[in-house]
Write a structure and sequence with these properties.
homodimer, about 180 residues, alpha+beta, four-stranded mixed β-sheet, three-stranded antiparallel β-sheet, 10 strands
């Protein structure tokens, strides 16, 4: 196996370096165009969903989520593992679990690579409308609140550093582009 | 160590499950509020930079980058490891390495969590202006071209699925918000 200009990182061996139920670390032994050997580890993670749930006032649902890597709570879009389901179905499940919200309409806005250089995960961005807000039965300790916020207020939160995860912002990028096409 | 409503995932033990020069997989043994024990693995990755380099025509620099996790080439914003440097310095280095471009002005637009639920990495988004485009000496086999593209053309690329990494789109989200404040 030789590296070529089209495929400049050739894999000459590979092993599973670590695995748990949610991710696999695959360590590839590589060779570059120069002939240099090295390793490149790829985090294999299944596709996830990120949900933009919009109410009749055009406000977007945010959830207050505990993120263990930072040991902190953050407002962000609801989302979670796709679990191999159809993305709209997975989004409906996550939206109900995290925010107690159901929706009568769901459409996929796009599919983004979460962290290109390191992970295989795609986030499928699902817009859910015609929502019904139920009593919020918190099923997971890692969410503790929900609120509907206008896009302008979201941008104010971003400016204040209160909403700052790439997965929410890239999803909202697609939503703003979708909105611009509806006018 | 007990889980509490404020910190619903308590860590009762931890180990380094895997490590290479670019990342560490830390496997935490956890206990939840219910008392259930489990594991939570966190990918520890240093901060990176993503660069929005804008020329005098208000076009943005994209680079054609090989991404080994997908074994494919994608147009995206330049970026890379921060290597512990000041973000503007790191951005200047990456921009020259990847695109042969230097810039006389650099400002940090924000700092985003790349993949909240899994990784510790922040991407620092750096806007670089007053750029000088040099002959493009490709120092890395994993980039093979650069181009300057207007925001409208970027959005057309996004719609066609030609630009679809979350790190670029979340960075461009911050840039559009910054632009809106300049008017």
């Amino acid at each position: 196996m030789k590296a070529t200009p089209d495929k400049p990182i050739a894999v000459i061996d590979t092993r599973i370096a670590y695995q748990n139920p949610w991710l696999t670390v695959r360590e590839d032994k590589t060779v570059r165009m120069s002939g240099a050997e090295g390793i490149y580890s790829v985090i294999e993670v299944p596709d996830s969903v990120v949900i933009i749930a919009v109410n009749a006032s055009k406000e977007i649902c945010l959830v207050d989520s505990y993120r263990h890597p930072f040991e902190a709570w953050f407002w962000e879009l609801p989302g979670g593992g796709g679990d191999g389901q159809d993305p709209v179905q997975a989004a409906a499940r996550e939206l109900y679990e995290e925010a107690g919200i159901t929706a009568n309409e769901g459409v996929v806005l796009g599919r983004l690579r979460v962290c290109n250089g390191l992970m295989t995960e795609h986030q499928v961005v699902v817009l859910m409308t015609d929502v019904v807000v139920h009593e919020h039965v918190e099923r997971e300790d890692e969410t503790r609140g929900r609120k509907f916020v206008s896009l302008d207020d979201i941008d104010a939160m971003v400016a204040r550093g209160e909403l700052g995860d790439g997965q929410s912002l890239s999803s909202l990028y697609l939503y703003k582009n979708w909105l611009a096409k509806q006018l």
